[in-house]
Specification:
There is one protein chain. The protein is flat and about 40 Å long. The protein is an all-alpha fold. Helix 1 runs antiparallel to helix 3 and helix 4 crosses helix 5. This is MADF domain-containing protein. InterPro entries: MADF-dom.
């Protein structure tokens, strides 16, 4: 079943929050290697995520974020194949 407009809007809000936590995605960041800061960021994101998915766990959130990152990379490779290969 396709997600509703409200669910899409909610996922975009989660992505915006996720982008605000470079310790979760920016490998070259100093904070990326800090476990405590990462866990705190995941806990904050999980509170937001539970607004829509009430039974979600931290593992569910991590799987969802990983799936979105993977999909984004795949689409980026289709749109800009040379640019994406040059960054690897």
């Amino acid at each position: 079943m396709a997600p509703s407009k409200e669910e899409k809007k909610f996922i975009l809000e989660v992505i915006e929050m996720y982008h605000g936590f470079p310790e979760l995605w920016k490998v070259k960041s100093k904070e990326y290697s800090g476990r405590e800061k990462k866990e705190a960021a995941y806990d904050t994101l999980l509170l937001k995520y539970k607004e829509w998915y009430t039974e979600a766990t931290k593992d569910d959130l991590k799987k969802k974020l990983n799936a979105m990152r993977t999909s984004f990379r795949r689409l980026a490779l289709l749109v800009h194949p040379l640019r994406t290969l040059a960054t690897n």
